[in-house]
Amino acid sequence: MELDHLKNSWNSISADLNSNEFDVLTATKKEMESPLNDLKAMSKRQLITLPLLIIFLAVMTTILPDMKNQLLVWMAFIILPLTTIYYYFNLKLINSLEKSEGAVKNDFQKKVKQLISNNNLYLNLTRAAILILVVTTEILIQNSNMGLIPGIEMMKSLMLPLRLLIYAGVIGVHYIVSRYTFNRYFGQYLKRLKGLLAEME
User: Where, by residue number, does the polypeptide cross the bilayer (predicted)?
Assistant: First the structure.
């Protein structure tokens, strides 16, 4: 009898815990609808815009054969498809968050954290790309490869300390602009998701 009573008590406690977890999860999902919808809309726009940019660039490269010899064009052909893939998986993750019914709390938290991590990774990769471009520019100048980047001849005419100052300025401006644009289009929504995620802990 005591064993049966203990089992019933445990089942009652487990049911209450599961019910509370479900209520918290349901409420959190509802609050996350707005930031998720905004991120979803942004991802959809990018999935339309980026392929169009790739097609435009491919057409321009065909019309203007000299573009084939420019480093920036080839970097664009690498970065744009990779960015498109990033937005595709971002959108796929958002859809899985929206469509999951009665998902396990830990699984839901994991997906939201992954979404936040993906967007932060994107921001850091854009900063890394501008740093790589700056370093590559200086390497090309040192090796006298002037035709790969338009306007690089003017940079070669400047003294190294002045070039380094310009590079630092470009990196600094890019950091500020990228941070502002990221916060405007992504960061504010990710901040809301982080806050809601913290409430679930």
Answer: 47-65, 71-89, 121-141, 161-182
The pLDDT mean for the chain works out to 75
DSSP string, 59-102: HHHHH-GGGGG-HHHHHHHHHHHHHHHHHHHHHHHHHHHHH-SS
Domain that holds residue 14: 2-200
Per-residue model confidence as pLDDT tens digits over 33-86: 777 788 888 888 889 999 999 999 889 888 887 777 777 778 888 888 888 998
Give me the number of domains the chain comprises: 1
Interatomic CA distance for residues 159 and 122, integer angstroms: 34
Of residues 189, 186, 195, the one with CA closest to residue 28: 195
Q: What is the DSSP string of 52-67?
A: HHHHHHHHHHHH-GGG
Specify the pLDDT at position 49: 92
